[in-house]
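Q: What would this chain look like folded?
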Amino acid sequence: MNILILGATGRVGHEILNRALNDGHDVTILVRDKEKVTTNHKQLNIIQGNVLNKSDIEQAVRGNKAVISALSTDGDTTLTEAMPIIIEAMEQEGIQRIVTIGTAGILQSRTDRNLLRYQSNESKRKTTRAAEEHLKVYELLNKSSLNWT
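A: My prediction, written as structure tokens:
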């Protein structure tokens, strides 16, 4: 299967990339810096670009059957800014399947059913910014026409 992986140079994304290649998939990755790519494989297509650039995303999704997003929430809003661009490009290209990595913080709290984990005393995190970013992406995907996990 032809798969686009976003966030492939990060800790989680790199693991997903290696597993996808080991499973025999043809993989495209969109990266800001090709020098950060440590994997070399005949079934790997590397596109240098930016997830916040609509034309870069459109180029990256073209020809793929699914998208996997392991985009980070490290200190910025790249994830929530990129997801509408990704969704639009996927819908235009007719790609229905996206898998995205999230945080358990947006699951229902076990101690207070009216709150999410990151909103309750169940969470020990000092900052909730990452969970808030993932919740926004969850809401965007939920409103989309995509088949998502």
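The chain is about 35% helix and 15% strand.
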